[in-house]
Amino acid sequence: MKEYDLIVVGTGAGNIVLEAALAKGLKCAQIEKGKFGGTCLTRGCIPTKVLVTAADFIREAQKIERIGIAPFEKPRIDWEKLSHRVWAKINESKELEQFYMNEKNLDVYKGCGYFTGEKSMKVALASGGVSEEITAKVIVLAVGGRTKIPNIEGLEEVGYLTSENLFGKNYPKSAFRRLIIIGGGPIGTEFAHVFSAAGSKVIIIQHNVRLLPKEDVQVSEKLLENIREFGIGVELNQDTISVWREGEDKVLLIRDIATGEEKEIRADEILVAPGIVSNADLLHLERTKVTVDRRGYIETNEFLETNAEGIYALGDCNGKAPFRHKANYEADILSHNLYLRTEENDWRFAEYDLVPAVTYTYPQVGHVGMTKEQAEAAGYTVSVGLHHYSQTSKGYSLGMMEGEVDDGFVKVIVEKKSGKILGAHVIGEQASILF
């Protein structure tokens, strides 16, 4: 059995911990089953934001007369040129892979790692075969997540897109003429914005009664207004029953959960985006003392420790929040505690109520902390402040007008007694920058 000081499974935020160990001259191993760089670089926040930026300009051009610009020819997305920009970023994963392949004190295993014992692992190599057994004093699981595939009759036979294969072998050569998106969370609504701005006729099928159900209720309602204003169809509170082919069409049968009414939706393609599941199930954790919750996420404490000594988990696989900045935050904490502390008791820990979240729809949505309902459920007596963009000079300069559908707002939840801010919620232009 080959021994290391550190094994990191995954090459996203886990690389932060790896770099800290390598800087101390420790012997390390890195395991990666896909492209190097993690979800964010290869199929998540970075390529989608390249697409979203172009889509934002399309939307902003639709209201230029408000801010004193004379009308000009309607802009359109050059899909081929935009795609080159997307793949230029994704292909940086190859440079990252080569960088680590050349790193001293590091063995890179390309394949799917799994446990063979409490602290021993093997790798099913992408090139074929299985690696030798390896172990380490510290093992960091940063294996990420993948799209949750709903159980819909006929879906596998008809075929579908996910964020994984869309930024892979199934990347479209042009925008779709008609697109069904199953899921009205952050991924689904962002892709709806992108493809609608690119000229696709888009419809979102959402099981929940709201879009972005984890957001403030007023934010969700405001987003729904804006999305429909741009011609994106939205069907809320729907069960997805079955899908089949009719000629060139993919046909999805949906059923209203409240009324039982059924409807057929036709499109050229279906994008599945109802959320993610942890990749922890690929690790054979039953051979270890590491535990998972009922959803399959690895259970960790505020120090990123699992129930097994010397094994840590960070990022999407621990289910705290599926954001790269949150994973980086965890990796910084773990790097400090394991390798960078200068004093014995200088421990750092994660405070997840401080982690902000942004969804790059149009308009953008962001929040940090609690909603009013969550704060009251936690026993707080609260005051709520709400201010529209149009009521500010900056909002006015951006062309926001009172009563218009795109007039965003900032909503703050405050504990009445102490004045402590418990939560802040924004929907509107440049909300991401505010956070």
What's this model, at a glance?
With 435 residues, the protein is an alpha/beta fold. The protein has helices at residues 14-23, 38-42, 45-61, 79-90, 92-101, 155-158, 163-166, 186-197, 217-229, 324-340, 372-377, 393-397, 431-434; strands at 2-9, 28-32, 106-115, 120-125, 134-141, 145-147, 178-182, 201-205, 233-235, 238-246, 249-256, 262-267, 269-272, 276-278, 311-313, 357-359, 364-369, 382-388, 409-415, 421-428.
Account of the 3D structure:
There is one protein chain. With about 425 residues, the protein is α/β, with parallel strands linked by helices. It has three domains: about 1-45 and about 85-145 and about 275-355, FAD/NAD(P)-binding domain (3-Layer(bba) Sandwich); about 155-275, FAD/NAD(P)-binding domain (3-Layer(bba) Sandwich), CATH 3.50.50.60; about 365-435, 2-Layer Sandwich (Enolase-like, domain 1). Helices cover about 25% and strands about 25% of the residues. The chain is built from 13 helices and 20 strands. The strands form five sheets. It has a five-stranded mixed barrel. Strand 3 and strand 4 form a beta hairpin. The longest helix has 17 residues, at about 45-60. The protein is globular, with a radius of gyration of 23 Å. The protein starts with a strand and ends with a helix. The model has no long low-confidence stretch (mean pLDDT about 95).
